[in-house]
Amino acid sequence: MIDNHILAPVFVQLFTAIAQLMFWRKTVTQRFLSVGGSIIGLLVAIRLFSRTQSEGILTMNAANWDAPFGIVFVADTLSVTLVLLTSIAGVAVSIFSSVSLSRQRMLYGYFPIFHFLIMGLYGAFLTGDIFNLYVYFEVIIISSFVLMTLGGRKAQLEGAVKYMAMNILASMFFLTGIGILYGITGSLNMADVAMKIQLVQNKTLVGITSCFFIIGFGIKSAVFPLYYWLPSSYHTPPSAVAATFGGLLTKVGIYAMIRVLSLIFIPDDFTKTLLMVIAVLTIVTGAFGALIKTNVRRLFSYLIVCHIGFMVGGIAMFTKVALMGTVFYLIHDIVVKTTMFLIAGLIRQLRGTLEMEKLGGLYRDYPKVSLLIAVVLFSLVGIPPLSGFWPKIFLFQDSFSQQQYFFAAALLFGSFVTLFVIARMWSKVFWKNPPEEENVEDRFAPMQPYKKLLMLLPIAFLCGVTLYIGLNAEAIVNVTDKISNQLIDNSSYIKAVLGEKTN
Amino acid sequence: MELLLVIVIGLLYSGGVYLILRRSMVKLLLGIMLLGNGTNILIFLLGKITKGSPPVINEAYKVFQDIYADPIPQALILTAIVISFALTSFAIVLLKRVYALVDSDDLDDLNTPEEEEL
Fold first, then answer.
1. Which chain regions cross the lipid bilayer (chain A) (predicted)?
2. How far is A162 from chain B (nearest CA, A)?
3. C-alpha closest to that of A221 among A308, A148, A141, A112
4. Pairing with A257, which of A21, A127, A201, A304 sits 20 to 30 Å away (CA)?
5. What is the pLDDT of residues A311-368, one digit of tens each?
6. Which range marks the domain in which residue A352 is found?
């Protein structure tokens, strides 16, 4: 079904960014435009989501070129679910950053770049053309470079060098992969490639090509040997930026991996084993990294790495149940990781530091805020009935039925370490008495009441979303069930893109 | 022609990887640029090089009768060149700023344990 509605989320963000560029240095107008644009984006995404639920996969051929020849945009359930979650995170981050960021950063174009970043994310989720996916990846990384360096402090720039080098390298791998893929199939449309790659005789070449994609997406999603750029850069930018990065950017890598592996390079035994080894090592190294960190945001950065392993493991098993677990975890992770970095920003605002040794007594001073944060942390750890619990059931269940005992052990270990480090963080930051000699710099108390409210609102909003995912798990399971059906049997995707003529 | 391109691609990739593995920031930048160019030529090569037959359909026929030069790789390379141009210019400015702040070209010196700002 041809539909222009698919591109609406992309255009909303694009026009928001352009409108903000017209109000250069007028930060108040930019803030209103940003929140307004994000909310419109959310409404459009909700509408798109409900339409794909009722009408099936929607496609749109750019400039009305027939499917394999032009660029095609596809909205299947996985894409629109991620678009919806990106919009939710986008609204929260946009509200949070309009009160928490310094005016200096806003003057140099924080908001337009933020909306270009969200536009890139939408585009990457919705495109059905592999080269177009590369272009949207570049939109994402160039925007993220600017967001990361905006402010120009020394630590920030140093983190940005590592981030930039690894991300450009990932793009090179991805582009090389696309080049070879075009050489062996002669097409760029993902559905068309999926058909043609089955006819290629030289299976070794196909395997090597898939390695290029796995390495490229692996760097982006920060899996084991390629993850070290993440913990050394994600603690440097402001928390609002880190929330966007931590919640969304690594997940694009996972999305691309799911998409490419389910459509083009259906995993064989070698790929499955490779991904499984990567997943186990990612969980273990991420967990060990989290154990030794004393800075809240560095701790969260390592937890991102650890939890990426859960999703890669689900992809590695590549069964319906495992993919349900992966997609459910992806949904949970986007919401919770965004919230966690927003919480880090809030703690920083309350106490002026993120070193656990210098923090303490937050529960005594702000009991209600602490309880709000506790809900999110419980959800991250996976206390039933909150959202982190359900995907792990699927992953456990399938790791036993597939006899992947190493993965089951790593999953247990990762979950346990998460529980441990979060409990330690809770006791040090919220329960422990604050060290006496430190003079606490509370920038939260002197804020005007509406600003305080605006700072807590996004966290409360995302907390509500987490609760909804956890308590209404049946609805989410239905969506993930639909998604994993579409992923395991990709013929519905191919049919929606290429039409009936292929079969 | 193909053989020459294969050798050039190999040289660009190996030179790029070698430079990236060095500790200097400038060499890192040069390595990334070499890799980018290597990738572009790779796409060009894999699109099959055909000389002297433009992708124009003869008026007498409705479809191509002969092999023709594929225009798509060139469009892809053009896009990739523009993108890598933007990325490279950003990288140059970033590395210049870092050099001014750190006063060193060595990647191992980029480890300021600074407490972050909000």
1. 6-24, 31-49, 69-95, 107-127, 133-151, 163-185, 205-230, 242-267, 273-292, 299-321, 327-348, 369-390, 405-423, 453-471
2. 9
3. A308
4. A201
5. 999 999 888 899 999 999 999 999 999 999 999 888 888 877 777 777 777 788 888 8
6. 4-502
Domain count, chain A: 1
Amino acid at A241: V
SS3 of B65, please?
coil
- Per the DSSP assignment, residues forming a β-bridge with A75 are A58
Q: What's the DSSP call for residue A306?
A: H
- Segments making up each domain of chain B, as ranges: 2-52+69-107
- Torsion over CA: A405, A284, A277, A279 (sign): positive
Q: Where are the alpha helices (DSSP H) in B21-112?
A: 25-46, 72-102
Q: What letter represents residue A121's amino acid?
A: L
* Domain B2-52+69-107 sits in CATH 2.40.160.20: no
ipTM of the complex, rounded to two decimals:
0.91
- Residue of B39, B76, B94 lying closest to A164 (CB–CB): B94
Window 152-181 of A: residues touching B by CB (8 A cutoff) are 152-158, 160-162, 164-165, 168-169, 171-172, 175-176, 178-180
Cβ separation of B32 and A168 shorter than 8 Å? yes
Confirm if A234 and A166 have CB atoms less than 8 A apart. Answer: no
